[in-house]
Automatic annotation (TrEMBL):
Compositional bias segments (type: Basic and acidic residues): 326-338
Lineage, highest ranks first: Eukaryota, Viridiplantae, Streptophyta, Embryophyta, Tracheophyta
Keyword Iron: no
Ranges for region Disordered: 313-338, 460-512
PANTHER family: BCS1 AAA-TYPE ATPASE (PTHR23070)
Protein name (Swiss-Prot/TrEMBL): AAA+ ATPase domain-containing protein
InterPro entries: AAA+_ATPase, AAA_N_dom, At3g28540-like_C, ATPase_AAA_core, ATPase_AAA_CS, Mitochondrial_chaperone_BCS1, P-loop_NTPase
Family according to the record: Belongs to the AAA ATPase family. BCS1 subfamily.
Reaction catalysis annotation: ATP + H2O = ADP + phosphate + H(+)
Amino acid sequence: MRMGEMGPQLGSVIASVMFVCTVFRQYLPPQLRYYVDKYTHQLVKLFYPYIQITFDEYTNEFRKRSEVYSAIQSYLSTKSSTIVRRLKAHDVKDSKSLVLAMDDNEEVTDEFQGIKVWWVLVKREPRQTSFSFYPQSDEKKHYKLTFHRRHRDVVTGAYLAHVIKEGKAITVGNRQRKLYVNNPSRNWYTYRGSTWSHVVFEHPATFETLALHPKMKEEIVNDLIKFRKGKEYYAKIGKAWKRGYLLYGPPGTGKSTMIAAMSNLMDYDVYDLELTTVKDNTELRKLLIDTPSKSIIVIEDIDCSLDLTGQRKKKKEKDEEDNEEKDPVKKKMEKEESQPSKVTLSGLLNFIDGIWSACGGERLIVFTTNYVDKLDPALIRRGRMDKHIELSYCCYEAFKVLAKNYLDLESHELFETIERLLGETNMIPADVAENLMPNSVTEDADSCLKKFIEALESAKEEARKMAEEEEASKKAEEEAKLKAEKEEKEKQEPAKDEVKCNGTSAKEEDAK
């Protein structure tokens, strides 16, 4: 028999043997299946020249999706959209375009450095059917990679590294930014429970539209870009790849808007951490661990979030009769909710700058407050809150940004008057924007500017009256204080002897 004819016949024999072994395995005792599997695999290794690698969708952790699986899915989505016949849309970007991926049990061929490989998305069906509200736990998916064994080193090394790198880049380009909020801990371990819930974050704020002085704006943007490119630098100096920002100033000065602008500039997700729902420091660390890289962790109004210096006042308990009438389960849940948070200042400091803060990288931590003086100095020192940004009243440069945004004006004859009034009056950017916004479609830029000037003059007059009232009140308090001190001094002085007309005192007259 010729060598060319021997190959196909040998392959047919091996396939028949494998089929027979598979059939007999179902009827063999468990003790004999081990030997059948062992010798079957040895036979395959001798004559089958291909290697297979599987990538499971979920890791060993409960319901945690594998990052490698997600990267492969994104990478293959660019290959399968033009080759595979059966596709499925697994994501929507900006509500305008679909991200397509290969459907179950479809195969995609890829080539790398002249090496051909095959990808298949395999879905393992449940072994038995059961009627349950939850899906079968063994219903899983995995990608199967097949390649010739002579290309083992290249595929397991350079090719897989290429797939993961390209897949992550595609994922970042396709993903939508999200706004997360932490869930109560009682929901973390339920079916499909998670520490964070999210919605799509589509805030339009950018640094170009932010009402801020251009120099301060440029400084903040440069600082953020330097941080994003600073992975090697932070590793070199031995610090965790994170940076803290403290935004402080009166209400309405744009603290939340700046966070949205930071998210749009950096392309980071926002994690809004509500400290009042966190029971203790352990839960706080758990939330930090579940926060991935490329994220902004925000604690707004941190001076009002928790009493970090002591226990908060407990709520008044209801009458015993009302408690007895309630359902025990509901009563237990209400009792747990009413328990004050045990998050301490030490736990929060460890969250920001302790050992646990190094679990992950490329994260921004942002605190906002209206009253920076109320915060503990240890909480906002450099190294924890690295950059302090004061967002104060609207200046003339910030007004020009708002005029450009709302009225499409870069100059106007009334700007000189507005510049003078802004130098004499304190007005927050939110009030400036409200006055510049047209109230109707017929209102033009001139009328909006005149309306704004009237508002500035009114605010100036009101501030003058308040200053006069404050001065009068202060003067009255000082006069009352001086009067009280004078009366107190007169009471403390010893009574002097009264002298009569004849020259004798009252004491001498009593002696007589």
